[in-house]
Specification:
It is found in: Membrane. The chain is mainly alpha-helical. The protein has 2 domains: about 190 residues, Clc chloride channel (Orthogonal Bundle), CATH 1.10.3080.10; about 180 residues, Clc chloride channel (Orthogonal Bundle). The chain has 16 helices and no strands.
Length: about 400
């Protein structure tokens, strides 16, 4: 390809990225604002809603079976499209995953939201790429869509860009996708914010001096523990999903029956403290409220169980809450500022569980500012190395 043709093609992708960003950002705003309203309603009325979690699970599964059974694959379907194992991602996936996630959160399941946003972005961008017969559609258009989905929901376009690139291509940075992905992520973030979706950010005043041996050792320990936590999450989720699929092959029976003990436990343990996204734990960690020493492990277990039996949502926001609550506890143990350790955990556990390196560092920059960037680089790099190659996206990497 000559230089002129390359520039023309890049311009086409840039224009398409802006279009995708506007559409996905608008959908993210709708999805995110409804989800926040649902979460607030559930927090107040959980005692009336949690008992119906098994019924909600049956409704979600029936919905998929009635309208698009293939969409049950979720993120796996996205990666299959990128690997050209499937021709198209059903557009029905978008409303199904949105409604399914709303129901999961309304009735108290422990799940995230980024999986929905990423699937929305990937589905739309893939469909547009097929419509206009873009070359390299399966890979590049998926990166554009995933960056838009993540960026529009969390309004962290830099981390969204690198998240999409790192998740979809193994062992290398796909620089060809960088500019279009940045365009789609920034456009989606601007669009969703303009439509009333707020960004989460924390003014981080705490810092530490890395000149002392004791402090350096503590920071290294933080990276190792956060890395092991992310590895535990991704390993356990993969194994439990496989176990549930083998032992209870009927999806209706699996979600309907197993949601009964899930609802009972969520109700009994601190009155739905571990339901939903986990933003209550994140807020507690950064405002000096009570964080229990077991918050991180219970949120981890409840999220894994909720997703393994078939409820809809994502993993990233629960990972943020797991890292935050664990960081607060470790800060006290190591004599470091708890809020700073919470911020490091917020980024590093996410990075470990998703098997990404640059994305969590960018999360640190965009959510907590640049004052502690050296710490974020060190801790996230150690966590990434400790994890190895495990990821919550079992079908990832093209």
């Amino acid at each position: 390809m000559d230089k002129k043709s390359y520039i023309l093609q890049l311009l086409k992708y840039f224009v398409m990225a802006v279009i995708v960003g506007i559409i996905v950002g608008a959908i993210d705003a709708l999805f995110g604002r409804v989800l926040i309203a649902i979460s607030d309603f559930r927090t107040i009325h959980y005692q009336y809603l949690l008992p119906f979690l098994p019924i909600a699970g049956l409704v979600i599964t029936a919905m998929y079976y009635a309208f698009s059974k293939a969409s049950l694959k979720g993120m796996k379907l996205v990666f299959e499209a990128g690997q050209q194992k499937t021709d198209a991602i059903p557009l029905l996936l978008i409303p199904l995953v949105m409604i399914g996630t709303w129901l999961t959160h309304l009735f108290g399941g422990s799940a995230g939201r980024e999986g929905v946003a990423v699937q929305i972005g990937a589905t739309l961008s893939h469909a547009i790429g097929r419509k206009f017969k873009f070359p390299e559609n399966g890979r590049l258009m998926l990166v554009i869509g995933m960056a838009a989905g993540f960026g529009g929901l969390f309004q962290t376009p830099l981390s969204a860009t690198f998240f999409a690139i790192e998740v979809i291509v193994i062992g290398k940075m796909d620089y060809e996708a960088l500019l279009p992905a940045l365009a789609s992520a920034y456009t989606a973030a601007f669009t969703s914010h303009s439509l009333g979706l707020e960004k989460f950010s924390v003014v981080m005043k705490d810092t530490v001096n890395l000149s002392g041996t004791k402090t350096i050792a503590a920071v290294i320990c933080l990276g190792i523990i956060f890395g092991l936590t992310g590895r535990l999450f991704s390993f356990s989720l993969s194994k439990l999903k496989a176990f549930m699929g083998e032992k209870i092959m009927n999806q209706f029976l699996r979600i309907g029956f197993m949601a009964i003990p899930l609802a009972v436990l969520l109700f009994a343990v601190h009155g739905s403290r571990y339901s939903g996204l986990g933003t209550n734990l994140i807020s507690a960690g950064f405002t000096g409220q009570t964080i229990y020493g077991y918050d991180w492990i219970l949120k981890l277990l409840f999220t894994i169980f909720t997703l393994a039996i078939g409820f809809q949502g994502g993993e990233v926001t629960p990972l943020f809450s797991i890292g935050t609550s664990l960081g607060v506890i470790l800060g006290g143990l190591f004599g470091l500022p708890p809020m700073l350790c919470a911020a490091l955990g917020y980024a590093a556990v996410f990075g470990s569980a998703t098997n990404t390196l640059i994305a969590p560092i960018m999360i640190g920059l965009e959510v907590f500012g640049g004052a502690n960037m050296v710490l974020f680089v060190i801790v996230c790099a150690i966590a990434y190395g400790v994890n190895g190659d495990l990821s919550i996206y079992a079908q990832e990497k093209l």
